[in-house]
Amino acid sequence: MGINRGLRASQQGHLDCLCGIYSLVNVLTYLYDGRVKRKPLINALLREYKYHYDIYDLLMGGMDDDEMDYLIQSVLQQGYYYKHHPVIITKPYQKQTHLRTKKIINDISAFINCPDNCYQRVVLIGTQEHWSIIIGADNKYFYFFDSRGNIKAQHNSFSLIPQKTRHTLFSTSIYFIERPF
Questions:
Q1: What SS3 class is residue 118?
Q2: pLDDT digits (tens, 9 = 90+) for 127-140
Q3: Domains plus CATH for the chain?
């Protein structure tokens, strides 16, 4: 039985669509340097989701930005996590029209690389297939803290135009998140 038969173990994202839940856990984990207890947080997120939505739909189809907004508001922006692990969350493109991909990419890079030492920053993005956390940016790449193990992606792999590039951005699924020091 010790012979590798060419099989690969299943990983998060292969059989479930919980990347939205994982991304919120990863936001607090990253911003608070691992001091957040992950299991109680994931339990709180799943429990809150279950009160308002169908958990089976989450497992099979993932979550949209309205569901993400609900979890952020009900778990991260009030109660225990707001008191012990506060974060400032904005959606800068929520009501904007006539956006350009280049502007969003430049804004994300500027936000992540801002020299202000009063905040630690990440950007939560939802694309057509995955929720992820951008933790760094340079002239060519975004760098991730990601539940699927994604490490980096080129800026030019993102677009607001569906199916033009590998990652379709949605203006309502971009969250700028800051941890005040």
A1: coil
A2: 988 999 999 999 99
A3: 19-180 (3.90.70)
